Amino acid sequence: MSETPAGAVPKAALWMIGSIVSFSAMAVAGRWVSSGLDTFEIMLYRSLLGVLIVGTIVLVTGRRREVATRHLGTHIIRNISHFTGQNLWFYAITVIPLAQVFALEFTGPIWAMLLAPLVLGERLTWPRSLAALVGFLGILIVTRPSPETLSPGLFAAASAAIGFAGSAIFTRKLTRTDSTLCILFWLTLTQAVMGLVCAGFDGDIALPAAEAVPGVIVIGLAGLCAHYCLTTALGLAPASVVMPIDFTRLPVIAIVGMMLYQEPLDPWVLLGAAIIFAANYVNILRETRAARRAGV
Which residues cross the membrane (predicted)? Predict the structure, then answer.
């Protein structure tokens, strides 16, 4: 049984703080620029900045051979899923409280469990099914569905989690053969093309106003930083250690929403999110112990 090296957990915690700050900054910046840009335009400019950054890294480090095309179809499917989820996420953060968006985003791992048998051939065991059922209970508490509470924003946030789950599943499949740099390169390039097509569909692509340019830059940099920090943290410590730290994104963004946008702290959202988290966390602990017993 392998142990986490001494000092790795504090380092992972620091990386997770970077991830939490980045995700929160992206949400605030997304609201900031949404008055002048639609979600497709936001994704276009975010992806173009990503292409510039990742392309520069590829050229400067001389790692062009890593950018392979042998699994381009899988990259495209993965990025359509992510592009759809991210657009829905950017829409949701403009119309419902930030805490609600983040709470529903935490259902992503549950959807991934349900999609994994279809894409990766993984078995849907009864503990995973139970975790999904408990997580669904948490969704019901967060949304409290009724004709008065259901809204396009809630559906968008819930659907965004499904898009992110699909992205995670296909990313897991790609990591078996392709490097992280290769995945990031095709992520930014294909989503820049998708953003250009969708934003230009009506023949009118708005340029960001001068006051919105810093927000667009924050979105582009924060998106890359968030995923880099999260990936680095998972490389230092197991998911069973990292995930509780990631969950602090919810109270952080709830406080941000209260301070910047006068959004009330909804105890039902926090309770539902805690149940979603518990379902994910218990499943991760069980999977980790099973892998250790199997000597993986």
Answer: 12-32, 44-62, 88-112, 124-142, 154-171, 183-201, 213-237, 268-285
